[in-house]
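Journal club prep, shared notes

We agreed each person brings one worked example of a sequence with its structure written out as tokens. Mine is MFS family permease. I'm keeping it raw so we can talk through how to read the token line rather than staring at a rendered picture. Sequence first:
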Amino acid sequence: MYLSSIDRPGTDAASPAGRSRLRGIKAVGGNVFALGTVSLLTDVSAEMVTAILPVYLVFGLSMSPLAYGTLDGVHTGATALLRLVGGYVADRVRRPKAVAGVGYAMSALAKLGLLAVGRSAGAIGFVIAADRAGKGLRTAPRDALITLSAPPHALARAFGVHRAMDSFGAFLGPLVALAVLAASGQAFDAVLVTSFCVAALGVLVLVLFVRDRHDERPPAAAPSPREAVALLRSAPVRRLLVAACLLGFAVIGDGFVYLLLQRREEVSLSSFPLLAVGTSLVYLLLAVPIGALADRIGRVPVVLGGYTALLGVYLLLTASLRGWPLVALVLVLHGLFYAATDGVLMALAGPVLPEHLRTTGLALIQTGQALAYLASSVLFGLAWQLWGPDTAVRCAAAMVVPAVAATALLLLVRPTTRSHTEETA
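Then the structure, token by token:
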């Protein structure tokens, strides 16, 4: 087996003799913590709303599985092309912080938009799309800032720290929503107003505490669209993009996982948001140690292990196991899946992308994965509606195995023949 250069943790930042390498969280730098704080607050805001949306849409509005799958796909994938826009603009203007700030502000304002749309599923979908447009715009510039703020040998750990803080926000969000609902007499408007205030605080932290980062080379001419397209001529980038699409197509939405658990175990609607809390708690606990593990043993094996955990989630959802052991195992494996894949995949991408197109390259990979997820979510909703949830989950499980096998071949095995373009990429 050949461990490709996209998976080899950086060694060019080794400490001089007599100086011990910084370990743990201290190695990733203050800018990563500032970005993590922004993401923590933003995720508190987002999860206050999204943790209760599946129940509201499916039970409150009687939305069909196909309609919910389409809306869930829109939530993640329909604005995926804006990731490319955000990445390219950030590379052009060399101000990733500013581009990310616009995205965070858009998502904050979308929370107020939900106050005006009432029970209209179409209007809710439009506002969710606007919120995700903000996420699409900010994600690649934010991740580029992380890659520029952490040493190469600690990239996966840096993403682990950021994702841990992000998941802590996702952990707190549903709990804050439940507290606001209890204090306001079940007033959904109070949740939305509180959500907006928390998101606005995140934007303020970004403005005051996050610093722009650039590579240390002298500023070059702004990259042209042709140069951005030329990224696809790089063999490592192509392989990583195809792998991201394959893996994205094997994932069904979190809301579907929680709805399947609710259906099997008859979880009360008032307790439904706590399922997301369970996943976020596991993610929070495992993100940093798994990021450090990926830096030590290789990032590709950790990503593949994460998708193996996802396969376990799908198999458990069709197994005969019942009761709290089923719920606990599903949530633990679901959180493990995110801890082993979310930030580690971006750490894989960083070292193989050219400095002047780093943000665009990250956005390209995120866009491919998000569009694959959009297709997966719609198809899963259709399969549920046509054949029932059990058959739909078995189909999802069947997709994971070839996706993991193909990804292993793409990223771990050297091609036996290579074109001249690949040799010089």
